[in-house]
Amino acid sequence: MLRNDPAQYDGLADQWWEGQGGFAALHWLAASRAENIPPAAHPDAVLVDLACGGGLMAPHVARLGYRHVGVDLGLAGLRVAREHGVRPVRGSVLAVPLADGCADVVVAGEVLEHVADDVTVIEECARLLRPGGVLVIDALPATWLAALLLVRIGEHVPGGPPAGIHDPALFVDRRRLLAAADGVGIDLRLVGLRPSVRDLLAWRRGRRAVVRMKPVRSTAVVFAGYGTRR
After folding, report:
1. Contact 93, 116 (CB under 8 A)
2. End-to-end Cα spacing for the chain
3. Which domains does the chain have, with CATH numbers?
4. Where are the alpha helices (DSSP H) in the chain?
5. How far is the C-alpha of 229 from the C-alpha of 181, rounded, in Å?
6. What is this structure's pTM?
7. Per residue in 96-151, pLDDT tens?
């Protein structure tokens, strides 16, 4: 199996907005990101959503009052994102085709573990952010526990990632990430995340649409990062 194949997303495009499908956990993470984004400070505030996929951040971004610009390489995902109100831009997260300082908020969710050069992604986030702008990320760390739970086990359970979507060799070195953020003027803190067990049980019974992600001390399985551009 070829892991981390971008073409796989095209084949799964019809599942982006299925709350019980292969992208279910991405809905949970989108809601978690939104909890850490302040409301737009002015009518023209822009949120840039890197690797936006099918635009799962759209309802949250609209509620917060931002103009939502989504960047992705996949045309199929961008078409879905457009249908949900995202302004689509085709491009790489390693060289985003947007102007310096254009964003009040940058979101880079579930993308750092899909690229060979996560430092460049952080550099691009800093370039896009205006001074005082907010960065929200989430990613998978380079630990044996993350590989075990999210690949070897996770790909075989409901709500887990689609088979082959992740390559543990690309999981993120957290120390390198923090150093890179500091080097480009972003004060970044990392927080571990886990799904609420009660919500997860209710979701499996069809009683909840979204599972809340709860903060935990350990960043060894899934982590979020919240930062500000100096």
Report:
1. no
2. 43
3. 7-229 (3.40.50.150)
4. 7-11, 24-34, 58-64, 75-83, 118-128, 144-147, 174-183, 197-204
5. 9
6. 0.96
7. 999 999 999 999 999 999 999 999 999 999 999 999 999 999 999 999 999 999 99
